[in-house]
Amino acid sequence: MIIGYFPGAGGNRYLRQLQGLEYSQDAVTYDIKNPLQTFTNRYMLNGIDDQAEIILTHCLNAPRLKMLAPDRELIFLAADMKKCLHREWALEGHNNRYKSESTVNVRIEHYNAIRDDSWPIVTTMEDLLALPGHIAQEVDSSYSDIEVLHNSVEYQQLLSSFATIKWHHNYYLQYPIDYRDATVVDIDKEDTEFTQVMRRQLNVNINPMFKLAWDSYINFGPDASLTEIYERNKK
After folding, report:
1. pTM, to two decimals
2. Residue 66 burial (CB < 10 Å; 0-12/13-18/19+)?
3. What is the pLDDT at residue 109?
4. Which residues pair with 186 in a beta bridge?
5. What are the pLDDT digits (tens) for 169-214?
């Protein structure tokens, strides 16, 4: 059996339910309680580790899973992607998994946000360091006024949540959600003990910075100017 689900949608809880184990504590992750699950299977980017009797994966593309494991039964947990990613990010994503992926270079973003049309185009730190002296002085002076904002917890939350959202949108573009040949457990529509538990986990207030990151991605795409968006949001 393969259980496919969005990060945060309760795949580990669903497995524990099948095993007759406790799975209903609120606001905790059950990842470490299922030690047989491997990193290879998390997204199926490099094939499949076919050793476990039941495999958990965030891949929701049934044709790919059937290609990798044609004899496996597929069970997909259907849920709201935004709520699921928010839950995953809130539980562990900000501090552990995705913060290192927040590769937004705030100095370059800040430059492009204040750039005059007559100034050079900057895409790298090397470009920024090569600016004429009078421009560099103006940029440095402007940046010093907002540097405190960029070091705030909220700004870091915006970066890490945007990285989470961006990575997973790209992943699901590469491996589109395709439920064919899978048994679907609809968390929003079905009324079982498991779906009730998961609705309780997912139906929480969305962190404001995660919401801002989500809206920024939807409205402006993967290259959204987060520095400019954050500064505007703080006004």
Report:
1. 0.82
2. middle
3. 78
4. 78
5. 999 999 999 999 999 999 999 999 999 999 999 999 999 999 999 9
Q: Which amino acid is at 169?
A: H
Do the beta carbons of residue 183 and residue 204 sit within 8 Å? no
Where does residue 154 rank: exposed (0-12), middle (13-18), buried (19+ CB within 10 A)? middle
Rounded (10°) angle between helices 11-18 and 193-202: 160
pLDDT score for 95: 60
- Which residue intervals of the chain are DSSP H helices? 11-18, 40-43, 62-68, 81-88, 106-114, 125-129, 133-150, 153-174, 193-202, 208-220, 226-234
* Tens of pLDDT, residues 44-87: 998 998 888 899 999 999 999 999 999 999 999 999 999 999 99
What the block records as the tokens of 20 is: 């007759």
Q: Which residues contact 34 (CB under 8 A, 6 or more apart)?
A: 12, 15, 16, 56
CB 85 within 8 A of CB 7: yes
User: Among all chains, which residue has been given the structure tokens 């939350």?
Assistant: 157
